[in-house]
Amino acid sequence: MLNRTGIAAIVVTHSRKELLVNCIEALLNQTLACDIVVVDNASTDGTEAYLYDQGFVDDDRVHYFRLKENLGGAGGFQHGLKYAISHGWKWFWLMDDDAEPEPSALKNLVLHARHSNTVYGSVAMGIENGTKRLCWTKKVIDKDRIKSINDYERLENFQEVQNVAFLGFFIHRDMVQVIGLPDPTFFICRDDYEYCERARKCGARFILVKNSVIIHPVKGISRFRLLGMDIWYRNMPPWKTYYDIRNRIFLVKAHYPTLLWRRTIPGMLLQSFYNVFTEKERLFLLYAYATGILDGLRNRRGKRFLP
Predict the structure, then answer these.
(1) What is the pTM of this model?
(2) Long-range contact list for 78-85, CB < 8 A, 24+ apart?
(3) How confident is the model over 41-90, as pLDDT tens digits?
(4) Domain total for the chain?
(5) Where a domain ends, among 215, 244, 272?
């Protein structure tokens, strides 16, 4: 198959074939055409046969390949970017299989993507109680101050942020070649944050384009205040909590080591204490916190728990 458009949308999937098809259809229906690289993380639900049956693999814009084992989002995006670079695309648009870009999302992104050393991002958004909510709290940079935003309407048209998630993450091949590839040892969670830290050290800025919208489920985000600290966390199953905790420690140790014992570890302990009283799977969550903290401090990387 040929590189037809200069832009590759890289989609990582694992055993969510119906969501994947919705994502591919949304990408094929963009008002600005792109090619699509689907990285199948060893799905067990018949994803490959389903894509063939639906005719997607026969479409010359869809590049599908299946990994021999589940390498998580981090490993999947690493392989996807490596494939895209070797096939000559200039821009890469990264997302998960449960993303549904609005028809004009890519066109609006490309209209403002003028600098190869800037990372651009679509806005991942969902509707919660009638309000347009960001799927993740964004830390935006406003006149050299950082503030947190959850509501879509509060974004500026072009908003500088601290980082862009691998959900509408738009980057030029030249920048990837400077930064390198995502770290597959993260497996899942915080791999995009770590990649942004490396990009920042290479001189990158991060810009969200408000009218480039990806519809995505809104994840449960909770906030509580304890001992004078604001604690933000996303409600996740225990297996995923493990990776989030462990990888957050990897991230802080590598890029903000002075914060590890002053903020990161105390915040995790307070968060785990809060979970004891609020979550149903409290014992499993406490185990995830304990093993995540220990493995993060011991630098135990790679795949350990699966859903």
Answers:
(1) 0.93
(2) 78/181, 78/182, 78/183, 78/184, 79/39, 80/10, 80/11, 80/12, 80/37, 80/39, 81/10, 81/176, 81/181, 81/182, 82/181, 83/37, 83/39, 84/8, 84/10, 84/37, 84/173, 85/173, 85/176, 85/177
(3) 999 999 999 999 999 999 999 999 999 999 999 999 999 999 999 999 99
(4) 2
(5) 215
